[in-house]
Amino acid sequence: MKHLSEYRDAHLVHAIAAEIRKTVTRPWVLMEICGGQTHAIMRYGLDQLLPPEIELVHGPGCPVCVTSLELIDKSLAIASQPGVIFTSYGDMLRVPGSHRDLFSVRAAGGDVRVVYSPLDAIQIAQKNPDKQVVFFAIGFETTAPANAMSVLQAHSLGLENFSVLVSHVRVPPAMHAILSSPQNRVQGFLAAGHVCAVMGYWEYPPIAKKYAVPVVVTGFEPVDILQGILMTVRLLENGQVSVENAYKRTVTFEGNQPAQGVINQVFMECDRKWRGIGMIPASGWCLRPEYAAFDAEQRFQVNQIQPAESPICIAGQILQGLKKPDQCPAFGGECTPQNPLGATMVSSEGACAAYYRYRAGLQV
Ligand code: SF4
């Protein structure tokens, strides 16, 4: 654990926090993009070490949270069909659809299974040739290479009973959407280190330049996050608009090019709806036409879904940095991890779940 303890060193954490306090002279609003970073900030109380001038708002980088309600409802419709084995990461089972979740489909007799990798779903398909096996392919740039690989493997195996329900989303178009909104409050971004480990950060300089907003590639441990904040604050205080890398042990400018190659082989850009936010142009990846045979949406013809979102849930505003979870009237009352009204209260990367778990004296 040596490597981890270095990045959780209390003396270093306090030294960087002191440097931030020394550097800041006026208010700044920073957004950490990734829900994993939000949880680390809450878990270690990093926001409480910052001077009052620095406000952290929480971004849309939680794949479970932004998977559109329409796709959740499609997953429920597919999983309910006889002869289907529906496979998914565990977080998705409790995400509320319009009227129910995957757990309730399973309780009603549906064959819904938790897997740890899309390749597990491939194995299930090989062992069950008389069933249709569907994998719920959600996530940002981080999970896309493995999901693309599963499609390539199914193709090379000639599997006709495997398909993917694709809900891939991309970070840069979401940054454009947030920054171009008239309500935007974000003045600097902490970019998600694991996304950049795959994609590099070559897509960010045009965004930083267009909106005059600095971006710092940031990791997930307390020292990483505070270092990212310090570098962002220095750029803001000096009036510099640039992209810097505070996660050099993992991220290069170009990223993982073989992984990018696999993604581009299987997926192409498409418009994508984000839960609570709406349609963001070119913000998703969909299967290329040559892999359409593996598209669960086409295989199961579930295009007549009319989703109905909770009228109370403000998760969309939280994911754009416009509100905080504890500003939601349902937080901790009508909405809890046991009885969630929105995905941000369910996901292990959701901002509402982080506030519930680490703040307000509440426990999951
Ligand atoms: S507390 Fe619940 S209802 Fe409120 S925004 Fe979060 S998930 Fe939605």
Task: Summarize this structure briefly.
The protein has helices at residues 2-6, 10-23, 35-44, 63-66, 69-79, 102-107, 118-127, 144-157, 171-180, 193-199, 204-211, 222-237, 257-266, 296-300, 315-319, 351-358; strands spanning 28-34, 54-61, 84-88, 111-114, 132-139, 162-169, 188-192, 215-218, 243-245, 267-274, 278-287. It has 364 residues and is of the alpha/beta class. The chain has two domains: 1-305, 3-Layer(aba) Sandwich (Rossmann fold), CATH 3.40.50; 315-358, no CATH class.
Q: Ligands bound here?
A: iron/sulfur cluster
CATH superfamily (homologous) name of the largest domain? HypD, alpha/beta domain 2
User: CATH topology of the largest domain, which one?
Assistant: Rossmann fold
Radius of gyration: 21 Å
Characterize the overall form.
Answer: globular
